UniProtKB/TrEMBL annotation:
Residues 23-167, 190-325 form the SIS domain. This is Glutamine-fructose-6-phosphate transaminase. One of its GO terms (biological process) is carbohydrate derivative metabolic process. Keywords: Repeat. It comes from Acrocarpospora phusangensis. Gene3D superfamilies: Glucose-6-phosphate isomerase like protein, domain 1. Pfam families: SIS.
Length: 340
């Protein structure tokens, strides 16, 4: 996991080089799109959450996350005319995802695959257009480099749907990620602050919500920590009651986005109640309101999630080792690989 985290700058560079020339193909396929439907599980589903917020906020198209059981269990046909179905899978071989993409096609959707499984993977072969990430083989069970390269593919998808963002911002991503790997912030303080805790709340809003979900998943699968990932809007509607001296909060935000003031206010509320609040990103203002913090990338909000997860991946790996867990092979989990 540690070496795959370190490979991310190169993986992101290679993926952007491969996929940016495909923006025009996305534009042609997506021309009549009125809605997007993302199909994914696990980490790939968290990449889809980023895609949803990015495309709704910056390309003005309604997005939904598919419930694969409608296709595979209830076997119900829906009218998907005008829908662009986007299946996301590291392996490109998760059967439920391939089956649901095929269902979407039969229901009238145009289809895109985002996968690290290569152009010959079942998912890529099923789709009208394949955006193949170039992360290299990922061996550790917890996805890292395949996740951030999926986010890069989402950015390319958004550009093809005429998102009102500056494509040149993507050039800055690999270097920003490199800097975070070299200096993620106060990892030791967060490891110390979480090592004896039964649970943690991980929260972010808007584009950073995807990062909160993905960090919570990493902490669950690799550290066996009861980590609850949710938007801070939802946190305030009840779940904040679980935050106390035994249950800290990790709050994630881009350094300059519209969700930063609310994240800072929440950090102040958490620490004011006597619990620890750990910041991820959010610049110096979130750091000042937090018990301890990890750095975020020096990137605009729309593309910040490509770097925001990186210190969280490092935290997961370090905490797993502190807890005596091998993060590469957590208990009870198998990975569908690109060659299965
Ligand atoms: O190969 P896929 O992306 O389709 O796999 C889906 C999930 O099983 C996978 O993302 C899983 O959640 C990750 N290994 C978690 O790190």
């Amino acid at each position: 996991m540690r070496s795959e985290i370190a490979e991310q700058p190169a993986a992101l560079r290679a993926t952007l080089d491969a996929l940016l020339p495909q923006v025009e193909e996305v534009r042609r396929l997506g021309a009549r799109t009125r809605q997007l439907l993302f199909i994914a599980r696990g980490t790939s589903d968290n990449a889809a959450v980023y895609g949803r917020y990015l495309i709704e906020a910056h390309a003005g198209r309604l997005c939904a996350l598919a419930a694969p059981s409608i296709a595979t269990t209830y076997r119900r046909r829906l009218d998907l005319d005008g829908v662009l179905a986007v299946a996301v899978s590291q392996s490109g071989r998760t059967e439920e995802i391939v089956e649901t993409l095929d269902w979407a096609k039969e229901c009238g959707a145009r289809t895109v695959a985002i996968t690290n499984g290569g152009p010959e993977s079942p998912l890529a072969l099923s789709a009208d257009l394949a955006l193949c990430t170039v992360a290299g083989e990922e061996k550790a069970v917890p996805a890292t480099k395949t996740y951030t390269t999926q986010l890069a593919a989402m950015a390319v998808l958004a550009l093809g749907l005429d998102a009102d963002v500056n494509a040149a911002d993507l050039d800055r991503v690999p270097d920003a990620v490199e800097k975070l790997i070299e200096n993620p912030g106060d990892l030791d303080a967060l490891v110390d602050g979480l090592a004896d805790k039964p649970g943690v709340v991980v929260s972010g809003r808007g584009l950073a919500f995807s990062t909160a979900l993905e960090l919570a998943l990493k902490l669950k699968e690799a550290c066996y920590l009861h980590a609850m990932g949710l938007s801070y809007a939802d946190l305030l509607h009840g779940p904040i009651a679980v935050v106390d001296e035994d249950t800290p909060a990790i709050l994630v935000a881009a350094q300059d986005g519209p969700t930063l003031p609310g994240t800072i206010a929440l950090a102040e509320r958490v620490t004011g109640a006597g619990a620890a609040s750990f910041g991820v990103g959010g610049g110096s203002r979130l750091a000042a309101a937090s018990t301890a913090s990890l750095h975020g990338p020096d990137l605009p909000e729309w593309v910040a999630p490509l770097g925001l997860i990186v210190p969280g991946q490092l935290l997961t790996e370090a905490l797993a080792r502190r807890l005596g867990i091998d993060p590469d092979a957590p208990r009870g989990l198998n990975k569908v690989t690109q060659t299965d």
